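Show me any protein, keeping tokens residue-aligned.
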Amino acid sequence: MNLLLALFAAARIVTLEEAVASARANQPQLRQARAVSQAASARAREAFAPMLPQVSARAGFQHSAGTVTVRNASCSADPTVPCPTGVASGNTWSDNVTATLLLFDFFSTPNRWEAAKAQAEAEAATERATELSVDFNVRFAYFDARADKALVQVAADTLANQVKHLQQTEGFVKAGTHPEIDLAQARTDTANARVALINAQNTYETAKVTLNAAMGIIGPTDYDVADEAMPAVQNEDADAQPLYDEAVKDRPEFASLEALVRSDELTVRSLEGQYLPAIGASAGVSQSGQKLNDLGWNATVGVTATWQLFQGGLTRAQVTEAEANVASEVAQLDLLKQTLRSDVEAARLAVRSAKETISAAQEALANAKVRLTLAEQRYQVGVGSAIELGDAQVAVTQAAAQLVQADDKLATARAQLLRALGRR
């Protein structure tokens, strides 16, 4: 039973959809981004709290004890007469409930709350940007592994063909129709093909290790990636301008920076509100006394105005900092627009180039196979040489690898275009 399970695990196939789903569920980068976004949302709720009534309650008990000197006329008049002493003690019980409410602070607190909300929106957009990055990374690693798997098959086919050539050459040499040097060449070519296969297999296993990391898992590589192509991206052949307009609208990095600009602009307003007084109201009820069943009570109401007249230039410095942050983020927005246009254009051109390359590579492979067939026929009848046959085999191998690489470039270019457009 364990052997069957092991064989089943070794034959397991991982699809692109499964790889992406695993990354979205397990990738630590995503978990971290979600936690940061949740923390920002909590800070927004914290910033809202000061605008609500603040209610506090307090209860206390105090016991006092000490020595008391009682002075009378006789002991005070005559120093030789001692004054009587006694012990004084007592308990005091107290409790109070106080409520305060911020009435108006020239929008300093409301703007601080709005700034915190905008910051939370920025972090949520950054989380979406991380999701796009994780999706791209796992797609890139997946198709890299898929290409390496295809190259393993190319190497295996090459080795099988070289073994066939070796067997034929051994027969020809025994029959005396071909020289011994052809056999040495065939053995060398076969050994080189075997080395190439071992290297290709190792590269494939290494690519699956990288894929595991992209999927956010720690485990064995006893699986194969499915032989599936990257689906075409909608409007991948469209002009650059509509694709760029879509990217500007949908890329979460834009939303994040715009929210940060809005947050710091609101922070400036909030800080400027601190130049003026804050007005608040308070009300409270308290009780106190030496016996719990005989407490006196008192009620208070009041209005306060708090004005920070001078703090050593603190507020002015904070305003300047926030204004500089706004300028920095606006510059980042402009830079992102420039970078995004080049990203979209590069991905679009890469898709087009890869499509054309695949067509050319397919033609090259077909012609190389014809050449190999002719070289094999010529060699069998003694017209061709071992060098000609080897060159033809190398041409097939190179053409097959070139087709694999072109297909991998198309898949990667489509993944890049998805990321550039802000699509998942």
User: Anything to note?
Assistant: Residues 108-175 form the longest helix (68 residues).
